[in-house]
Amino acid sequence: MNRTIIALGLLACSTHIAAQDVNIYTPGTDEGIVYFLPKTALEVNIIATRISYQPGELCQYANRYLRMNNVNPQPETYWEIKQIDVRSIGVPDSTKAYIIKLKDKSTLSNIELTENGIAKAINTTFPKEYEQQQGYELEKSLPHESTRKYMTEEILMAGSTAKMAELTAKEIYNIRESKNLILRGQADTMPKDGASLKLIMNNLDKQEKALTQMFAGTTDREDKVFTLLVTPEDNTKDKIVLRFSRLLGALSTDNLAGDPIYISMSSTAPIPAPTDDSKKKKKPEGAIYNIPGKGNVSVSYQGKKYFEKDLPITQFGSTEVLVNELFNKKINTRVVFNPETGAILKIDKD
Predict the structure, then answer these.
(1) Does 183 reside within a domain?
(2) pLDDT tens column, 82-127
(3) Contacts of 37 (CB under 8 A, 6+ apart)
(4) Within a domain: residue 102?
(5) CA pair distance 102, 108, nearest whole angstrom
(6) Total tally of structural domains belonging to the chain
(7) Which domain holds residue 161?
């Protein structure tokens, strides 16, 4: 994108000079406020979980004392896909750059732009309630309880690993018995109220979990987001956007160590027939905005469909004009655009 275009466009964020005409922008030939309409890019977000397992130091005795089968004695790290999400985002379309000439008797130049020069609002301020929420709630394991602080003196003084396992298992069973006696109301000293009961039970649960980790081991889970941009194309079928491996996580499309993640998309509404090029070059006679089309987008991995939704896609739509007469100072028209699609979100006037 031409840097001159961006520089001119950003001037509009603080400019309130009257203007009247809107022309297709040709770098170096006109003066005024430049703005862009957005085109759609599909932001594909793969939320994957990295799972790390560490065996407990008493794992070889898990079945003998706690009847825990299939406890893995080896450390292990692997990845799982938790979610795949696709969003339509707007990027400046260099083929749809327009310039507002500075003239009197119009409020059209009172235009608010994004940092990339995309039109957000005319003759008003972009409302905060229309701002899109970003980000995802990501999982991250909390630090594990220290097992040593819950071991009795007898456990710590055990002369062998086998004896330590036996004594630790007995302590776990004692904790379970204490919990059962409290719940049945048969304990020698019962909690005085509900808050005390909850506190005691939480402490017993914490002790049991920490000691059980000596046999079962610990598992940590941490989410990570892998993001890539895809240009929408009609009738796209099973295009590889990324590869994913259980052992290695997200990989590039040419790394055959992972299985492919596919994206498919198609227009869900007829694409307008292209207009004559000669007509496109005529003066637009007002503020240009998008009427985005829609496309069905789906993403799959290993035969499972993780995402499918109709999304707004400007390339599958058309453009229209808000005529200059709407921005006569006597009418005072206010317009809010969606900076992701270029569509009108709200329009009103005095």
Answers:
(1) yes
(2) 999 999 999 999 999 988 877 666 777 788 999 999 999 998 899 9
(3) 93, 96, 98, 118, 119, 288, 289, 290, 314, 319, 342
(4) no
(5) 9
(6) 1
(7) 56-80+142-221
